[in-house]
Amino acid sequence: MTQAPKISFHHNRSLPQAQDLIAWYRDQGRDLPWRHLTHDPYSVWLSEIMLQQTTVVTVIDYFHKFREAFPTVQDLAASPLDKVLHLWQGLGYYSRARNLHKCAQVLVREYQSVFPKTAVELEKLPGIGPYTAAAIASICFDEPAAIVDGNVIRVISRLFQVETPVPQSLPEVRSLAQALTPQEHAGDYAQAIMDLGATICRPKSPLCLLCPWQSACGAAQLGVPEDYPKKEKKAPLPQKYGVFFFYTHGQHFWAERRPEKGLLGGLMAFPSTAWAEDPLPLEVPESFAPYGSEDLQLFEKAVAHTFTHFKLTMQIAQIPVAQADPLSNQGQWIAWSDIDAHAWPTLMKKVFKVIAENYCVGA
Ligand code: SF4
Prior knowledge:
Layout: H1 18-28, H2 41-51, H3 56-69, H4 73-78, H5 81-88, H6 95-110, H7 119-122, H8 130-141, H9 150-159, H10 170-180, H11 186-200, H12 218-221, E1 239-249, E2 252-257, E3 268-269, E4 297-298, E5 303-306, E6 311-320, E7 331-335, H13 346-358
The structure holds iron/sulfur cluster.
């Protein structure tokens, strides 16, 4: 059995008591079909696997369908996999259905169709991770195994104002979750904390006034529950700048294929300056333009785009030319009416949007 660590607060606040949460659950918990079958690990296992990445409302129908088609773990093990996958249709993540079938077969073959009673043993079965193992062990066999999923992480991080961001905080959260888990009525407690996270301690606008742990909750007392769990702050992306040169001739504009190597490799775009970290001068020097710059006019509006590793702001400089001669051998004059015949990167689509707002085609 897992050793429960002791917890204490440095300041004047009561500790969250498991019995307060259990009392709330017995009075206000959700009435879910599998809750009437807590003596039946097969049903609890089925519901827990289905609930991974799926909402309770969706799962209810599937749960009934599966229980009807496969009343026992032996029925599930004996079924062709295709039938299981067919019934699973619409729940997504089919590896869960395959593991369900595989797990049923292992249970029949190696465990005489009897579910093991501890989280440690349950975790050895296909498709059963630490959370599902702890859920089955606590709900069906009252083992005080701490369950830790996204809901529980949120509740614990708020209760104890865990300042370390997720996922680095997980060891601390697990230890606190274990300390809160009572030695008795662990099954009710597990379902209670699941319900609290799902219905009261919601990610946005938690209903602290209805929470049985409000007087013990650090984040609620400071009025900042939504500040927890803490998330790792991402370093700001570096900013780069450049100019696109929009050469025009009547109903045509000039575009070039970018070099295969590098960003937007092989895609069509306007010729541009290099993308540099220094902001460009307000007046774009004419020497920047690759193919002459007579009548260069800078658009007032720039285009912003975010790549994975940096942000880019591109100014657009229009340069009308008198002759439609090729400007280089990597590009071509393109008629506005043919624009959809080419594949443009998102950045260029944004550029076209700014142009459409500021430039009269054919002017
Ligand atoms: S008091 Fe509010 S923030 Fe704290 S555990 Fe309850 S619902 Fe969550």
